[in-house]
Amino acid sequence: MECAEAPGYRSALPKAKVREQTVGNGSDYVVQAPSGSLLSAAAGSFPTVTGVKTEKSAGVAAFGDGGILGSNEYTLQVNTNFDSSSAACNGYSGCFAWQQYVMSTNTPVSLTSNQLTNKTEVFIEYWLINYGVDNGSNICPSGFIDGGADAEGPGDDCVQNTKATVIANGQLPITDLASLKLSGSAKAGGTDAATVTFDTEAYTATVSDSLTDIASGWTQAEFNVLGNAGGSVADFNTGSSVTVNVAVTDGSTTAPTCISPSKDDGTTGETNNLTLGKCTATGGATPSIQFTESH
Questions:
Q1: Average pLDDT, stretch 8-22?
Q2: Which of 72, 83, 243, 289 is least surrounded by CB atoms within 10 angstroms?
Q3: What is the top-level taxon of the source organism (predicted)?
């Protein structure tokens, strides 16, 4: 299994007020744990994929046309809720912890280089949003890069990626979507992990949970196939239809809740051009939600 340095990938924070008619950017089904329960894991998969022939990541004007653009450029993302109770925020009011478990089909080799890895990788991007009070210097805790002043608060957005694990050389074609699964887990006082299963092989990247303390406040999970970084959109061909399943572990057999897109609970700025269908929730040994999306 090949390891790689922390990639120069950056997701975009959602801008719900300017979202377009796409899935993502605050308009997505989100799985909600039962009241009083916390998620320790979420696993996303695509039980049924029909008519998918092509996909192209394209820039979105509201996000400055950013991202890694082109054919078979996309991400799978399992995203947590924004957690305002995280101990990692060190008591700063308005600070949120956020964690993304990401598979990207291409990433910059670093934040200071436009060179791309041309490899499909899995990693974790972890955030402390609106941390501290911006004073023009790096105020982020150890283990984070200072991403600059937060758009809405007095603090800075602190972010970092784990080292990546390489899944494949080149971009996995979108026609492999049904063979891909992405799961994220979090353990208080332990290790968080992102795992991609491709066919029968598993590829994992890890980080200490103490950096975000997300395990202590993880109540929702979002999963989908989206554009590749920077608020981009994954454009699928006409006739595409995808069933999305998000299975969760919360210590119970109670059915979770499908949170409606109108609630703006999705936590990433990347999108796709598919239209959401109905969402259903199921309890039992593997509580989950399932929904369709098509073009």
A1: 78
A2: 243
A3: Bacteria
